[in-house]
Amino acid sequence: MSDASGCHRPSPWHPLASFRARAPRTASESETKKIMERIETDVVIVGAGAAGLTAANKLKDAGESVVVLEARDRVGGRLWTGDVDGAMLEIGGQWVSPDQDALIETLAELGLETYTRYREGKNVYIAEDGERRLFEGEIFPVPAKTEGEIVGLIEKLDALVAEIDPDAPWEHPRAKELDEISFAEWLGTQTDDEEAKLNIGMFIAGAMLTKPTHAFSALQALLMAASAGSFSNLVDADFILDARVVGGLQQVPLGLAAKLGDAVRLNQPVRKIRWNPDDLAEGVVAVTDSIEVHAKRVILAVPPILYSRISYEPPLPRRQHQLHQHLSMGFVIKVHAVYETPFWREQGLSGTAFSPYELSHEAYDNTNHGDTRGTLVGFVSDEEADGVFALSAEERKAKILESLSHYYGPEALDPVVYYESDWGSEEWTRGAYAASFDMGGLARYGADLRKNVGPIHFACSDMAGKGYQHVDGAIRMGRLVAEQILNEQSLAS
C-alpha cells in the first residue's frame, strides 16, 4: 500500500496491541446487523488525539463516564510514530521544548523519558549564490548589513509579541490593523533587505504556519510567536526543538488511551451530531456508521477544517459556519532520510541546516535514541511543496535529496530508508501542521473559536494560545474544555 508520496505507508508502531486497528466486519455481518449499537455516557469525545484523550481522562478522573470515537485505525491524530523498512520514524509531531509545561507534566505522569536533540558541531547555511557557510549560534552567516536588519526585526517582533496575549490576540489595540496586513507586507514596511525578510519569514511561514508570508497576517504571525513566549524562542532551534521522547511522541496519546481502555473506539468516523436547542437536558447524540452514542455533551477534538465532515441537526449557527470557512491548513512535507551512520557528525556538523533559497528550507539530525544509524529530517513547505508534488515520486525524491546534499555533501544522496510524511493526503487531517486564519480572520472571528454551541464543545491544538500548533497546546485545550464541562455540570446540579 502506498500513499501520495509514492513511498510505503508505515504500520503504526506502538507497544500497546489493544489499540491496533480492529478488524472491520465482514459484508455478511454488516448486512445482518440491522440495529445500531447504542451507548449511553456522560461525555462523548470525537477524536483520539492528545486534546481529546486529555479531556477524556480529566473527565473520567472527575467521575464522568466517557466514550472516545476515532475515525482512524489508531490513536494519536497528528502524532504518529511509524516503522518504515525497519526504521522508527516520527511521521508527525515529535519535539519537546522547555516551556511546554503541559506536555512535560503529561510525560512525567506517563513515565516517559526524553533525550536531547543532537546539536554538537557547526550548523550550515546556504546563501543565495549557493555558497555553503558554517556557523554557530542563532544568527545566520550573512553580510553585516543583513545581520543588523535580522537582529533589528527580531527585536521589533519581540517587542510586539510582548504586548500580545496568545489566548486573546484580537484584544490588542492594533489587532484589526495588524490582521489586515500580510506578514510579507509588514516585513516590507520594516526593511528593504530581501535576505533579512526571507530569513525572518522562513521561521514563521516555512517552519510554523507552512503558508507563504503573503497568505497570513502580521497578527497571525505574532500569535505564532506569542504562543512560544517570544519571536526569539522561535528562531532558537535549540529551544523550540530541544528534546524528543524515547520511543516516539505518539506514546503520549497511546498512554492516555490505555488509561481509558474500551472507552476508545477506533474506525468510527462521526457522521452526524443531533441535539435539541430547546431542551438541553435531552443531551446530544453522536452517530457513526455502527454506533449511536447518547451523552450530555460532546467535544469535537479534531482540526476545525474537519467540522464540516459532520452533519448537525440542527445546523451550527451562522457564526460558526463563517468562522470555520476562514480557517485552513498549511502544507509541508516532512522528509526522513536514514543512513548507515550519522556521517555529518564525522564532518563536525550538528545536522542543523537552514536556507530560504533551498528546496528543503531547514533540516536537523533526527537520529533515534540509542540508534547506530543516522537520520536526517528535512522540510519542504507551502509553494515549494506544491511544486515537488507535480513531479513523479522518484523525481521528487531526487530533488529533495539533492537539496539535502547541498547541506551535508554527496553522502546525503543515498539513504538506506527514505520516507515523506504527507499529511495533506491524510483523510482525517488534510494538511499540516495546523489550521490558521486567512487575512482578517483572526481579529474578526478568533474570540468565537472556542465558544461552545449548546452541548457541543471544541478543543484542539489549532485553537490553543500557549502551545498553538503543538501537542502542548492540544493538552492545554483538552484540560480547558474538560474544566468548562465540569464547571457547567457543577452549576447545573
UniProtKB/TrEMBL annotation:
InterPro entries, sorted: Amino_oxidase, FAD/NAD-bd_sf, Flavin_amine_oxidase, Flavin_MAO
Keywords, alphabetical: Oxidoreductase
Pfam families xrefs: Amino_oxidase (PF01593)
Amine oxidase domain mapped to chain residues: 51-486
Chain coiled-coil ranges: none
Domain of life: Bacteria
Cofactor(s) this protein requires: FAD
Gene3D superfamilies from the UniProt entry: FAD/NAD(P)-binding domain
Region (Disordered): 1-33
Stated family: Belongs to the flavin monoamine oxidase family.
Protein name: Flavin monoamine oxidase family protein
Source organism (scientific name): Agromyces lapidis
Lineage of producing organism: Bacteria, Bacillati, Actinomycetota, Actinomycetes, Micrococcales
